[in-house]
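Exercise 4. Each item below gives a protein and its sequence. For each, produce the structure-token representation.

Item: Peptidase S41 (Streptomyces cinnamoneus).
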Amino acid sequence: MLGPTMSVPPRRARRGAALTLVFVGVLTAGALTGSWGADADGRHGGGPPTAVPPPAHHATAARAVDRAAVAAAAEAAARDGKSGSEAAAEVVGRSGDAWSAVYSAREYEGFALALDGAYVGVGLTTRRVGEGGMEVGAVQPGGPAERAGIAPGDRILTVDGVDVTGHPVTEVVSRLRGELRPYAAWAPAHPGTPVRIALQRGRQRWERTLRRERVVTQSVAVDRTSGGDRQPPTTRIKVGSFTRGTGERVRDAVRAAAPGEGVVLDLRGNPGGLLTEAVSAASAFLDGGLVATYDVHGRPHALYADPGGDTRRPLVVLVDGGTMSAAELLTGALQDRGRAVVLGSRTFGKGSIQMPSRLPDGSVAELTVGHYRTPGGRAVDGAGITPDLAVHAGAEQRARAVMGGLGGGS
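Answer:
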């Protein structure tokens, strides 16, 4: 699936200390690559964008990879009987652009599956920490990892006996997927195959052998608090990522909330996803209007919400350092439009745009082509979104208290 998405693409060869969502079983972070409105052959999709005043170039724009240089390197390597994707990856690696990447055709096929919210794996997310360390970011409810007692924050030490410290995120994920087996040819393992993981929690170390299985993710979870302690009842909408159908599920949850009842939109740990789904989610709370502006190769465009959203219901948005990309775009739109109180900690700051193109050997190069801004003109890349209220502990309780001040309740 090569289309308009925004999130964090893992680079096989290298990746900095960036937080990366990885549903172990499918490189979901790669599936949500930040590619914007273009197919792999370079055709733009999604209709003609609307022009807006050109945004100032982001500070990182100078680091963007030269698309022609990448294509030329791949073509030259192919003529010499060498790997075009490896040659392209070398050009990308020298650029210093942390978000451009080269993927194999099989990886991109896996990304397409991830956009539908299903994968074969053990049901956890990973993130890079410290000096090359790897830890569990979240666990899928009911998945193999949760059943084995694995919890967020657990350090991943080895996978099938291989020390993963300092290894690229994508290599670790491939081991967890079972792709690095002999003769695997980068095909994911089947459900039921085992993977042995060594972990550490505090001073305790232990091993677990998990069986991979087909895991279906729920990108949206909804629950309702009954209030109490003079706090009004609220509906909490937790959005884990913007996979296909997420925007409509958010809109359904808002429509199902009791009249006048406040909504807590929880975007903590959300790595982004399909851009169209983030805009659709924004439409649940806005009556049309600007969601974001962006530039592609210096050409300005804009994104607009659909009319008819609920503009009166009290709204609090929860964010943290794991709120990224399309989730930041949504947060910035609701904040700049005065539609929500944003509560939590500063978001990650991934506001660059990547577009995919096919290389001669069928692999895909995702290269940075521009950056987006909030409706108020704020650049997100490298800066993130600063919440209206900084909260590091007890965020949900604080959100309910804020909701009371906004007049939420039925």
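Check: Residues 67-79 form the longest helix (13 residues).
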